[in-house]
Amino acid sequence: MKPLPLGVRVAAGLAVTALEQARRLPQQLAGLPLTVVSEAMQLSMRVQQHVTELAIKGDDVLSGLRPAEEEPEWATFDEDGDNDTAVVEESADDPWEEEERAIAEVPEFLPMYDELSIAQLRARLRNLDVEQLEELLSYEKAHEARPEFVGMLNRRIATVKSQ
Fold this sequence. Notes:
The chain is mainly α.
């Protein structure tokens, strides 16, 4: 037997497929709202992911353009508490360090030093000479020994000496 032309075979296949789809139509109509909602939610999730990815890329680019923010004085972390405990324990073991802390007085040229935030101190450092900066540094090391203050004072001393 000779095969039928391709067009006839394709048309017959389309007719059978249409008939099968028509038989499944009532079941598909019942699930259609759920399918639409599901696809809408998936689309929403994809859009949110793309927006988040774009925000992350933007943050990466912009972080290079602006200076890093310093840690606010009100921000505390678990690690900070552990370090403070370690410093207290070490100083309790060393009576000489306790005595140095007791002897060191707030420098006369900056009597409110202990109450200053790091930003407030930074604003006042420009008016101080090397001797005053070194006095502040030794006072800070003897009392609080806050890393951000010690680092800032060391950098300022180096800057003033290089000028």
